[in-house]
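Re: that chain you flagged

S.,

Sorry for the slow reply, it's been a week of failed gels. I finally had a moment to sit down with the sequence you sent. For the record, here it is as I used it:
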Amino acid sequence: MPRIARFIRDKQPTIYHIVSRTALQGLPIKDKDNDFLLGLIKKLSAFYFVDVLGFALLGNHFHLVIRIYPESDPTDDEIRERLQKYYGDGLKVTGLLISDYRKRLTDLGAYVKDIKQGFTRYFNKKYGRRGFFWGDRFKSMIVQDGLSLVNLLAYVDLNPIRAGIVKKPEDYRWCSLGYHTQTGNKDGLLSIDFGMKEWNEFDPSEIVRKYRQFVYETGAVDAGKGKVMDKKIVEKARKKGYKVSRAERFRYRCRYFTDSGIIGGKDFVQEVFDQVKHLLKSKDERKFTPVKGVDGVFSMKRLMEVVE
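Prediction finished late last night. Pasting the structure tokens below so you have them in one place:
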């Protein structure tokens, strides 16, 4: 039986929910692998003309919610800028190249293919294997802005809850609510343009708070599929008005105290790094990351960093 053609709206900005599963058994994608996958998504989403609205990266599949723009939206200058940023200033950008990339950088299939192929190359090299990593072609669903989108995003962010991995979605750093909370939406990866006019809100932090409230209240409802959020956790957050406290934000950054390689004052991190960089096959220069919420403390590693 021939495949049903993928639903595509290519004349206007369109939101898609993308799901792709591995062909391998069990849960082959480990924490470090999801770090790489998230970095790859960040890198390619800055190249393609897409907005990332939400994601959840699990042990055997991923969810991605994006808004992709039509060919008519990007200007020639915008395409030229992205090409030179991605490939280097030495790239000679001709009118024909711009025309070709105008189609590619607004193409849903090309975007997902680059993510999946990039991850397969990484995974096969890391684990010394060959062959396919992903299963059948990815699923995609067109989603309307507003309430439909927010419900979908909540469903995506609640994946680690239903799987019993964590008790709160922001405790899982490979989902969008975790990314908002733990990194403060580092590098502006996530768009919060949900189309929720009913919220009548323009302050980004308040939009995220209201979205967190929506996720918690939705997560407490037993839909008969997987685990639900503990009602005590929901009630506690409800009393706080769904605001994340300073202590909670600090706790989410505690990963720096276990995974940063070197942590301390900037001069100290530089001094130790200079002594050990020959072991890391590192470039001569590196920028160190300030640990937000802890004044004067820096990390050698940019945790959840973009793929280079």
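What I noticed first: Strands lie at 14-21, 50-57, 61-68, 139-143, 263-264, 289-290, 298-299.

Talk soon,
D.
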